[in-house]
Write a structure and sequence with these properties.
Helices cover 45% and strands 8% of the residues. By secondary structure, it is mainly alpha-helical. The strands form two sheets. It has a three-stranded antiparallel β-sheet. The protein has a two-stranded antiparallel ribbon with strand order 2-3. Helix 6 runs antiparallel to helix 7.
Length: 273
């Protein structure tokens, strides 16, 4: 006999105690997180998609050196001095990847980082084009979610993002991830922790139906989010740390937990040569 069912309410959903999931949710990519959890794609989701291309080798980055365009300069703002620097980004459309490795989503993002002569480009020069990239990503994520029955209406136009959803947040989130991947583990931590403070964006939740498939994906994602949010250094082996840090960094960014995630690996790296 078939048991009666009913739709779960939003308060019930938010009050759910999610079991920790130690691996990324099946059927979900970092770029999908904003739509699943916050009901709309946000700047962290674009940053996570781009950092995913860095982690998988499609993009490589390096800080601009002294004497090069984008080299570190000292700027004074509101009476305080700070250093600003830029990064060179290089596209590799055929990177060496582990056998059977899953191809990243949104490979079209490479177009925004590729120069006509194949030379590296400055991250700051790419910045204007990321506005268009964000719009394209939003459309793609919504269409994909609808095809997988994760949503049953298009949430765009119901309640649009407020002014807090600015392009500056996209760039800040991306920069945080690039800084975290740029140097030694300790350098990643300092950069990631500082950059994460700039990626918090105000979002307005609009009404969106979530079918059973979408609710299941939501639960899986929240389980992995709980792991990222609560991970501790003593749970991670030193020999596994570098791979785990890079692989899960896009998730930490889109969950808004980059500062915690990098802090954990600071503790892992403490005392290690």
């Amino acid at each position: 006999m078939e048991q009666p069912t009913r739709a779960i309410t939003e308060p019930e959903l938010l009050a759910t105690n999610y079991a920790v999931q130690f691996h990324p949710p099946e059927g979900v990519a970092p770029r999908d997180v904003g739509l699943l959890l916050d009901r709309q794609t946000g700047p962290r989701d674009l940053a996570a998609a781009i950092i995913g291309l860095v982690v998988t080798g499609y993009l490589t980055i390096r800080p601009a050196d002294e004497g090069e365009p984008g080299a570190p300069i000292e700027v004074k703002k509101r009476g305080k001095k700070r250093e600003e620097k830029d990064f060179f980004v290089t596209v590799d459309r055929d990177p060496k990847r582990p056998p059977h490795a899953r191809e990243p989503d949104s490979l079209w993002l490479l177009d925004y980082f590729e120069s006509a002569d194949g030379q590296p480009v400055l991250l700051s020069a790419v910045k204007p084009g990321l506005r268009e990239a964000f719009s394209r990503l939003e459309t793609e994520v919504v269409q994909s979610a609808a095809e997988r029955d994760y949503i049953d209406i298009d949430p765009r136009g119901r309640k649009a993002p407020t002014g807090g959803l600015t392009f500056g947040a996209v760039f800040a989130a991306l920069l945080a991830g690039l800084l975290a991947l740029a140097g030694s583990p300790l350098a990643w931590i300092a950069a990631g922790g500082a950059g994460a403070l700039g990626i918090t964006v105000g979002r307005v939740r609009g009404p969106m139906g979530r079918p059973a498939e979408g609710t299941a994906a939501y639960f899986r994602t929240m389980g992995f989010k709980r792991y990222i949010d609560t991970a501790e250094a003593n749970q991670i082996k030193v020999e596994d740390a570098a791979g785990i840090f890079s692989r899960y960094l896009p998730w930490a960014i889109t969950f808004g937990a980059a500062d915690h995630w990098t802090g954990v690996f600071k503790d892992v790296a403490a005392g290690v040569d």
